Amino acid sequence: MKLIDFAKRAQFEEKQGFLIKESNGYNLLLNELQVGYVSYIVVLVCLDKAITKEQVKEINQKVGTKRISFSGKSNSVLMFQFDDLFGPVKEEKVNKAIDNLSTFTQVLAAMNLNNQSKCIFCGQDKEDEDVIFGNYNGLYLPQHESCRQQAKTKAVAKMNQENSNTKMYPISILLAFGGAFIAALIINILTYFVFDGTMYAIAYALVPIAAFFAYKLGKAPRNKKMIVSIIAASAVATLLIDIIFLYIVSLGYNMSFIDFLIENKTAVLGNEGMTLLFLAIGVWISWNIITKTNDSDVRKF
Length: 301
Ligand SMILES: [Zn+2]
Known about the structure:
By secondary structure, this protein is of the alpha+beta class. The chain has helices at residues 3-9, 53-63, 91-110, 145-163, 169-193, 206-217, 224-250, 257-263, 265-285, 287-290, and strands spanning 13-15, 18-23, 26-35, 38-46, 68-71, 74-82, 132-136, 139-143.
């Protein structure tokens, strides 16, 4: 079943590019969630305050599902995930999903968890201005037009301020390298002394992440140059650490470092290839973090 077909069946309406339905006083937002190669139909609801994990558990129990969770980092946005609605779907599954949605909002109401209805920027009522629903960060949320403009201006100013910090590039790039170096050192120490020589690709995600936070400390603009710097710093740092470790190992043999490398050419090249492959996987895993550029706040509008 396609998203748009489910939207029709469950009576969602298109508003400003969103698929929206009001149910028991809640604004439900229908969306598609991509996890790797798999897509799910999800419904999001924004509450007016953060709720607890225990409350989420209680909601799941009362609705009779396990698929309601926090959406991302926000403890006030709930996501109801429908696992088996894509592809050919039996009629009763669709009906059950629609029933569950209705139960979901009834449970929220019974638990006194309220829909986000106040301006997300000022959180207050204004006598002379109504809140209107619209996009913010991919969600359909209430906002005053004046508050929205104010927040947007602020976000743009912050981005421009950071973009003018070009003289900090050398410091930030150096810090990125330092961060990557320390992370690579820790990973190598763990690989040799804790994991008995087994390399874990997931551990290599630490290298670009450390480089990202170190770069950020230097306060240079976070843009495409940053992403390139982080990847380059990560590659140089991991290879350098490998060479240092190889050098230490070579000391145990009665030959020069160059001779040691030539003698073990196949093993050394294999090892370096493996390191770069694992680092590439690490970059892929950490992609959402290391590509957090300084226009991310502006792009929310
Ligand atoms: Zn406001």
